Amino acid sequence: PILGHVIHNKYKTSTVVRDNPMSLIAESFRSLRTNFQFIANESEKNVVLITSVITGEGKSFTAVNLGTVFAQNQKKVVVIDFDLRKSKIKQYLGIETNEGLSMFLSNHADLDNIIYPSGIENLDIIPSGTVPPNPTELISSARTSELFSLLKRTYDMIFIDSPPIGLVSDALLL
């Protein structure tokens, strides 16, 4: 089903819902949230994968802003940057670290050490971490399933920013 659409971002920020809450684009994200709630099961923890065919189509932008509108609606939200090759989310939110998802998936960090506050109430971020030599193998490991099990204990909504589905198989694995 089509849940809605997001209008073109004319602002010079990637966090439009936070920075321009009265804008039409912020309203389009709120509309998506409302429509999503009609099809989602309220009693379950929802995991949403955001992907597209090629780079530059707005996956990270969509993940951050959807996460923001759900967080503003009193949901506990985490956005995971699963693009282990070309991360953008930490730049959008000003998170300066090399720790992140790749460290957890390779057993070099605990989950608590890779979750960062976004600066937006109820919204946490898991940045991608350092670029590993084997992103597809890490994503297909048992640690990915463990990650989701652990996150579902704390978060109402989990948004996954994935690499483009037309270029690599990572989104298919997820």
Q: Based on helices, strands and strand pairing, what is the structural class?
A: alpha/beta
Shape: globular
Strand content: 5-15%
N-to-C CA distance: 20 Å
Q: Round the Cα radius of gyration to an integer and report it.
A: 15 Å
Q: Return the string of H and E elements.
A: HHEHEHHEEHHEH
Mean pLDDT over the residues: 90
Number of helices: 8
Estimate percent helicity.
25-40%
Unreliable stretches covering 5 or more consecutive residues: none
Strand order of the largest sheet: 1-5-2-4-3
The largest sheet, given as strand count, sense and whether it forms a barrel, is: 5 strands, mixed
Number of beta-strand segments: 5
Description:
The longest helix is centred in the first third of the chain and has 16 residues, at 24-39. Helix content is 37%, strand content 12%. It is α/β, with parallel strands linked by helices and 174 residues long. It has eight helices and five strands, in the order ααβαβααββααβα.
Question: What are the main properties of this structure?
Answer:
174 residues, alpha/beta, 5 strands, 37% helix
Short description:
The protein is an alpha/beta fold and 174 residues long.
Please give the structural blueprint.
Elements: H1 16-19, H2 24-39, E1 46-50, H3 59-72, E2 77-81, H4 89-93, H5 101-105, E3 116-117, E4 123-126, H6 135-139, H7 142-152, E5 157-161, H8 170-173
Parallel strand pairs: 1-5, 2-4, 2-5
Antiparallel strand pairs: 3-4
Helix pairs in contact: 2-3
